[in-house]
Automatic annotation (TrEMBL):
Alphabetical list of InterPro entries matching this protein: HTH-type_LysR_regulators, LysR_HTH_N, LysR_subst-bd, WH-like_DNA-bd_sf, WH_DNA-bd_sf
Family statement: Belongs to the LysR transcriptional regulatory family.
Protein name: DNA-binding transcriptional regulator, LysR family
Molecular function (Gene Ontology), one example: DNA-binding transcription factor activity
Transcription regulation is among the record's keywords: yes
Keywords for this protein: DNA-binding, Transcription, Transcription regulation
Gene name linked to the record: mmlR
Record's GO cellular component terms: cytosol
Length: 300
């Protein structure tokens, strides 16, 4: 029996796998949950195998699902490369640089480098995506991104990597909040209070949720917002406490009514690394971007 494959199904399945949730996978794919369920049902019937196991805790991949996921990523990566290569003939671009990074790198460290680079490279397009560090490492290994910026204790074996800047996570709170009376604190001590956070699915949100789960304690999020600036505004207004990178705090700490203390957990100090399969094997424009990042942020 002939099997039929659909790019939308590939993207949808990847989003479901990365979030372990039909609901969040649907949101990422801009589909309704019923439409997603119908697509997965039709896909499994077409392939003749079950791809997902459903439970109240979410979804997990079957062995067939893991195989489908691996090939879906490779196929989409090849299609993106094809699109990028052909794009230069339609709009004058010479190339597309694929970059994945975590929340902090995108909001605090990449903007000045990206801005200068695009001015000096008007014929290059940057496809930049926010991901968790573990997902970024996998994407670099699979070749679905040219460069990745990761942080923390993520394992980069088999890749080339260059250490960049280090940053500590900070706790910010209204000046009269009791957590500020403690001095510097461990993450566990913060979990008795309500948080202001970036939107669900953001890299920092997922990272902190996993850290709380490792302690077998809930992370109580009262408000979710879309930017670091909005986090500071909400904290200043008394909506809760927040954990932010020191770079964000240094940039926005001029606000009145906000105090800060450091997180003492070892993982709270994170060194950012720039990763590639092979820096020498990059296109000229991708290598020039990597060199610009290294020149600006390399500290060792």
């Amino acid at each position: 029996m002939a099997m039929h494959f659909d790019i939308t199904d590939f993207r949808l399945f990847i989003n479901i796998a990365e979030t372990s949730s039909l609901t969040r996978g649907s949101e990422r794919s801009f589909l309704s949950v019923p439409a997603t369920s119908n697509r997965i049902k039709n896909l499994e019937e077409n392939l003749g195998v079950r791809l997902l196991e459903r439970s109240p805790q979410g979804v997990t991949l079957t062995n067939a699902g893991k195989t489908y996921l691996q090939h879906a990523r490779v196929i989409l990566s090849q299609l993106e490369m094809l699109t990028g290569d052909l794009q230069q003939y339609t709009d004058g671009l010479k190339g597309q640089l694929r970059l994945q990074a975590n929340t902090t790198a995108i909001t605090e460290y990449l903007p000045p480098v990206v801005g200068e680079y695009l001015i000096s490279h008007p014929d290059v397009h940057i496809d930049m995506r926010e991901r968790l560090s573990d997902d970024i490492v996998r994407a670099v290994r699979e070749g679905s991104t040219d460069l990745g910026i990761v942080s923390g204790s993520v394992v980069t074996d088999g890749l080339q990597s260059v250490p960049l800047v280090s940053s500590r996570l900070m706790v910010i709170a209204p000046l009269d909040h009791p957590i500020l009376l403690r001095g510097d604190v461990f993450f566990k001590e913060t979990l008795q209070y309500a948080f202001v956070s970036l939107l669900e699915g953001s890299a920092i949100n997922v990272f902190l949720s996993r850290a709380a789960a490792a302690l077998h304690l809930p992370l109580t999020i009262r408000v979710q917002v879309a930017s670091s600036d909005a986090i500071f505004r909400m904290v200043e207004a008394g909506a809760g406490i927040a954990i932010v990178p020191q770079a964000s705090y240094d940039r926005l700490k001029g606000r009145q009514g906000i105090g800060a203390c450091q997180l003492l957990d070892p993982w709270a100090v994170r060194t950012f690394q720039l990763c590639s399969q092979d820096f020498d094997g990059l296109s000229t424009f991708a290598r020039e971007f990597a060199d610009a990042l290294i020149e600006r942020y390399r500290t060792v």
